[in-house]
Amino acid sequence: MEGNVEESSFILYHAPGSCSRVTLACLNELRADCDVRLVDLGAQEQQSTWFRCLNPAEKVPVLEHGGRVISETPAILYYLAGHYPALLPLEGNRHQQARVISVMSWLASGVHPVLTRIRVPQKFGENVEDIREKAFGAMAKNFALIDRHLTGRSWYFEGGISAVDFYINWIWYRSAGGGFDVEPYAAFREHAQRMAVRPGVISMESADREYAIKLGIAV
Ligand SMILES: N[C@@H](CCC(=O)N[C@@H](CS)C(=O)NCC(=O)O)C(=O)O
């Protein structure tokens, strides 16, 4: 049952280092009232009964708001934009709105799974080196597309910084940390430099270091 949605604060189920950093950084940038609940992926807490009740797909992030539960990063960002319109440029016509959904869907379904193969290739087979090599090749194509799009612009969409900038920034950070060579992508690198000084990113990174310490893991 839904509580008083408008007066409720957000609850984010988050795992340090994971894609829930995108939502966390956005919430921090917006200075939204948010309670973070940690999910220990290393201890398979995403498979626990309590977490499965929130998300049977066993994935973070999950956002709870006034009793409403939302999973999947694009859906969460879309929901948050209903409360914070500056988060996504959704005020245009149906085609412009579809473009925003299209980019987020591509990041979630076309780019993130490649990143998972770079970071945890052992999930996908025994020939770990081969899986990583192929994923590096696929990620190079994704980076080239993002880099080309960012060339000559500061942010992904013309109107200014949006949730998509936080989303691609997480992909940059996780790819670089996973050994992918980010150097050839100058426009994307400059974007990462701009993102590194955003208040939402700075506070998210500092909080996430603390969360990781709490769970005894490295991010
Ligand atoms: N499509 C989902 C993917 C979420 C996802 O893959 N989350 C990872 C962390 S980055 C996770 O919870 N993994 C736990 C598992 O696979 O067991 C989204 O965009 O939110």
TrEMBL record:
Protein origin, superkingdom: Bacteria
Domain (GST C-terminal): residue spans on this chain: 93-215
UniProt-listed Pfam families: GST_N (PF02798)
Residues covered by the GST N-terminal domain: 7-88
Alphabetized InterPro entries for the sequence: Glutathione-S-Trfase_C-like, Glutathione-S-Trfase_C_sf, Glutathione_S-Trfase, Glutathione_S-Trfase_N, Thioredoxin-like_sf
PANTHER family the record matches: GLUTATHIONE S-TRANSFERASE GSTA, GLUTATHIONE S-TRANSFERASE-RELATED
Listed name of the protein: Glutathione S-transferase family protein
Organism listed in the record: Caballeronia novacaledonica
